[in-house]
Design goal:
alpha+beta, 4 domains, three-stranded antiparallel β-sheet, two-stranded antiparallel sheet, 5 helices, 30% helix, elongated
Length: 192
């Protein structure tokens, strides 16, 4: 006979198992195996908010510095935690941070601060120079409908002119007239 007797790790009952399965089978049933795994991952700790002792089953994915006995303790702690929130970048280049579990975009915060109110309805913020990381109020404008892709040509030329001037280049009058014409609807001198 190719079987041996073993003791169940969970309930202690004797059971027989094939000799070839000796190293893999440690419990008399699936239920006992589940209970053994559960006990093996059971962690006793104190709540990081109220110091109450509690137990939970830790999965391999759930590794964190602080644990809470309830959702309300976790929420209370998050509200009391006034650590500065770091700015991050979305894959398409917008600057944001998570505040209270919500993604808040920097360009919207800048515009709301300028307006002194929250943005409503279809209001959205457009980056004039196309740089989503440039959230200076001079680079932002409020739009009352959904934005098309891209930028206006005048905004692009103005951004290019400013970039050139920042780096010490002199921008000649014909380009200035062209930019003004595209921005303000005047006929630029180069086209006359």
């Amino acid at each position: 006979m190719n079987s041996i007797n073993k003791s169940c790790l969970n309930c202690g009952n004797q059971f027989s198992v094939k000799k070839s399965h000796e190293d893999r089978v440690h419990n008399c049933s699936k239920q006992c195996g589940y209970e053994t795994r559960k006990k093996r991952h059971l962690v006793k700790t104190k709540c990081a908010h109220c110091d109450k002792e509690f137990s939970f089953t830790r999965s391999s994915r759930r590794k964190q510095e602080k644990y809470y006995c309830s959702l309300s303790c976790s929420t209370k702690n998050a509200k009391n935690n006034l650590a500065p929130v770091e700015w991050k970048f979305t894959p398409d280049g917008y600057v944001y941070k998570n505040i209270g579990g919500k993604k808040v975009f920097q360009h919207r915060l800048v515009m709301e601060e300028k307006l002194g109110r929250k943005l409503v309805g279809d209001e959205n913020v457009h980056h004039k120079n196309g740089d989503k990381k440039d959230n200076r109020i001079e680079n932002l404008e409020l739009w009352l409908h959904r934005q098309p892709k891209g930028q206006r040509m005048g905004d692009r030329l103005l951004a290019a002119k400013m970039l050139l001037e920042e780096h010490g280049y002199v921008v000649h009058e014909p380009l200035i007239g062209l930019v003004d014409g595209l921005l303000y609807g005047a006929v630029p001198p180069v086209l006359n």
